[in-house]
Amino acid sequence: MIESLSPSILLAMWAAGIAGGAAFVAWWRIVGPGYLWTAGGAALLTGLFATFSGGWAAAGTAFLVIGLLLARRPVPAALAYGLAGLAYLGHAVPSVGPVLAVTGALALGGTTCEMLLGHWYLIDPKLPRWALRRLDSVGIGGLLIDLGVGLTLGAMAAGASFVLTWTWLGLGGMSVLLMVGVWFSLKEKGYEGVMAATGLSYLAVLTSLGAVALGRLLLAA
Fold first, then answer.
1. Which phi and psi angles does 154 have, rounded to 5°?
2. DSSP assignment, residue 3?
3. Cα separation of 159 and 198, whole Å?
């Protein structure tokens, strides 16, 4: 079970997911430094609150800064962002455990990086869509596994609030449906397909954040 859930822990998982997604996009070498600055900056702002806790979170922020400085060199930037993601996970693990830390990062990172990269496709429509599909798959898989783990660990226990429990399931289910909608939107060959996918992923970021937070609050209750 979860010992506690503070904003610092939730934001650290989110930052870990964004940093990890940015690391993969950098490794794929499909975009220029502009995207890496954007994604790295988003991860930095998300994890900044956790940084005041010191330790692993501070190390994650330091690696993000290094990644931002190396954004013009994709491979070193990917390594720095990857290390940042691992460091932020190290901050979250003592409070929520390794499994829930990883599934939370996958769910939040997949949806957020999908949304950020989708906006980049609106700038350069010639970018390949397989990267969006991969991030979409990560988001869907992370959400499904996170819901499964929550159910296994007893988020629907008899003592849990009926309203909060079904709100959690509703948010999680809606997040999955939105990301599935992203997948099918990307099958549309026109420019509008990516626009629709980006909009759906933006909504998925909001619902998945609620699902990840609420699921852990139920387990900590």
1. 100, 35
2. S
3. 38
| Interhelix angle 7-28/191-220, nearest 10 degrees | 150
Dihedral sign (CA 213, 219, 220, 221)? positive
**Nearest to residue 111, comparing CAs of 177, 46, 24, 179?**
179
Q: Which residues contact 162 (CB under 8 A, 6 or more apart)?
A: none
Q: Which residues contact 158 (CB under 8 A, 6 or more apart)?
A: none
How high is the mean pLDDT of the chain?
Answer: 91
Which of 22, 81, 24, 14 has its CA nearest to residue 48?
Answer: 14
Among 166, 172, 167, smallest CA distance to 149 is for 172
Domain spanning 7-220, CATH class: mainly alpha
Using alpha carbons only, give the angle 158, 164, 170 rounded to the nearest 5 degrees.
110
* Residue located via tokens 């429509």: 125
Return the domain boundaries, the chain.
Answer: 7-220
8-41 tens-digit pLDDT: 999 999 999 999 999 999 999 999 999 999 999 9
What would the DSSP string read from start to end of 199-216?
Answer: HHHHHHHHHHHHHHHHHH
Amino acid at 117: L
Name the pTM for this structure.
0.94
